[in-house]
Design brief:
Na+/H+ antiporter like fold; 75% helix; globular; antiport; transport; transmembrane
């Protein structure tokens, strides 16, 4: 009960001052995680880790599912088909290179950690976070093509990392019963195939039912908001039943539902967005109160060093390689490379490692937690000033070269914080 009261009080405090703090670069994740950390240190008995970590994982998963679904609903598929160059290179080239770079750095920083565990760590910290990166994605001062690339990348890369993570988890626990390439292909087929099948199937059913009923005026005004929320959860449930990735199912399902729903998608995604934001807020409070407090005694200089390198070299160099040859200027490459925050997906992976009892799991979890904590702090505080600097540069650059890669327009959907009719 004390934990619930603490969570509610923190949520009320953030709600009251959220606008003023957000304008100053204090993001919800930064405020909520810090508040959770304070509560966890002052009232350590309020949160019981063995029970709450399982609950925290479910809340984090559901938050990510709802945010991925609602974000995907806003994407214009017809426009995206002609603008896949940047996102596809970030996903198909940048993501694998990020994993390889993470493995290389891990072998240097953690020479005594098993090779399989190093691979597992690199995969856990490869995906970027759609929710933490939203502040940059929704800022119209950033060119639309840059925002779209970051939006699509963060929406898909965590789902693509799931099959690799499951294989690495099996190897680390010495449970793999087939060859590594075979296991990777099998998991990719199951996770991606099951996720896509669940997302497309649930979204077609949910979207068609909505479109049919809404066109005839059968849906009550308030219940219009419930249908996409229910469809998002249905995507997740079916994917889990099929053994597929709930994250891929949510993102693909959101794309399909938005396409079927048509123009109405901008009006009916509000409840799904808000529910995802609320669950994410609870996750960040729990992150501060549980995860940070839990790993504080095991933080070493190696853990901090890997976290710093993961947010910089391990992310930024692969992005530069992936975008090479696209006529993209260095400031844009650096901007995209820096704004790859780690968040909910990495935390979910970390909690799974802890539950599975992976050897050296404490080191892995500590590194994930420290990396996410640093990402919340550094990406949150740097978003306002770096967006301002990049805006000045990009405005001048596009004005001098209207045909530049950054100047190519990309149709951006309604921003998450922008309400229909506003």
């Amino acid at each position: 009960m004390i934990a619930a009261l603490a969570v509610l009080i923190i949520l009320l405090a953030w709600s009251a001052f959220s606008g003023a703090l957000d304008r100053r670069g204090i993001t919800s994740a930064l405020f909520l995680a810090t508040a959770g950390l304070v509560v966890g240190l002052l009232l350590p008995s309020a949160f019981e880790a063995p029970t709450d970590l399982t609950t925290a994982r479910l809340i984090a998963e559901l938050a990510l599912v709802l945010l991925l679904f609602s974000d995907a609903m806003r994407i214009d598929l017809r426009a995206l088909r002609h603008q896949l160059s940047w996102p596809s290179r970030l996903l198909l080239i940048g993501l694998p290179l990020t994993v390889l770079a993470g493995v290389g750095v891990g072998l240097l920083v953690f020479p005594d950690v098993a090779f399989a565990s190093v691979i597992l760590l690199a995969i856990m910290l490869a995906p970027t976070d759609a929710a933490l990166g939203q502040k940059v994605v929704e800022d119209t001062a950033v060119p639309s093509r840059v925002r779209q690339a970051l939006d699509v990348e963060s929406g898909l890369n965590d789902g693509l990392a799931v099959p690799l993570f499951l294989v690495a988890l099996s190897i680390a626990n010495a449970e793999l019963e087939m060859s590594v390439p075979g296991a990777v292909l099998m998991n990719m087929w199951t996770q991606i195939g099951g996720g896509v099948l669940a997302g497309v199937g649930a979204a077609i059913v949910g979207g068609t039912v909505f479109a049919f009923a809404d066109a005839r005026g059968w849906v009550g005004a308030h219940w219009r908001q419930v249908m996409p929320l229910a469809t998002a959860l249905l995507c997740f449930a079916i994917a889990d039943t099929l053994g597929g990735s709930g994250f891929i199912a949510a993102f693909v399902g959101g794309l399909v539902f938005g396409r079927v729903a048509g123009r109405a998608r901008s009006e009916i995604s509000v409840l799904t967005e808000e529910a995802g934001d609320l669950l994410a807020a609870v996750t960040w409070i729990g992150f501060g109160a549980l995860a940070l407090v839990l790993v504080l005694p095991s933080i070493t200089w190696q853990v901090v060093l890997y976290a710093v390198l993961s947010l910089t070299v391990v992310r930024m160099v692969p992005v530069a390689v992936a975008l090479a040859g696209r006529r993209i200027r260095l400031p844009t490459i650096a901007f995209i490379g820096w704004f790859g925050p780690r968040g909910l997906a990495s935390l979910v992976f970390g909690l799974m490692v802890l539950e599975e009892g992976v050897p050296e799991g404490n080191i892995l979890l500590s590194t994930v937690v420290v990396t996410v904590a640093l990402s919340i702090l550094l990406h949150g505080l740097s978003s306002v000033p770096l967006v301002a600097v990049y805006h000045r540069w990009s405005t001048a650059h596009i004005a001098s070269d209207p045909n530049s890669a950054e100047g190519v327009p990309a149709r951006m959907p309604r921003l998450r914080r922008e309400r229909p009719g506003a």
